[in-house]
Design goal:
83 residues; alpha+beta; two-stranded antiparallel ribbon
């Protein structure tokens, strides 16, 4: 557990080790969820960060987005089923 101090303006700094582990970089977005007596911080990946993530599943199959999406979903489901 890492302790951080809240500034007078209500700000905290996320320690470098935590940022590195979660892939949080300058200008990254972080989701804040408030639960009973706790705050959850979650990194939010931008479209730029995930673009092309499914390309390997549909490579060379089509240039139509709907077809690529369908093929990628089928192949990802198959990979998960085989785990």
């Amino acid at each position: 557990m890492i302790l951080v101090k809240v500034s007078e303006r209500g700000q905290i700094s996320i320690p470098a080790a935590a940022r590195k582990k979660l892939g949080i970089q300058p200008k990254s977005k972080v989701e804040v969820e408030v639960r009973e007596k706790e705050i959850i911080l979650r990194p939010v990946r931008s479209v730029r960060e995930v673009k092309g993530i499914f390309r390997k599943y549909a490579k060379g199959k089509s240039s139509d987005w709907k077809t690529i999406r369908r093929i990628a979903q089928q192949r990802v489901a198959k990979e998960i089923a085989n785990e």
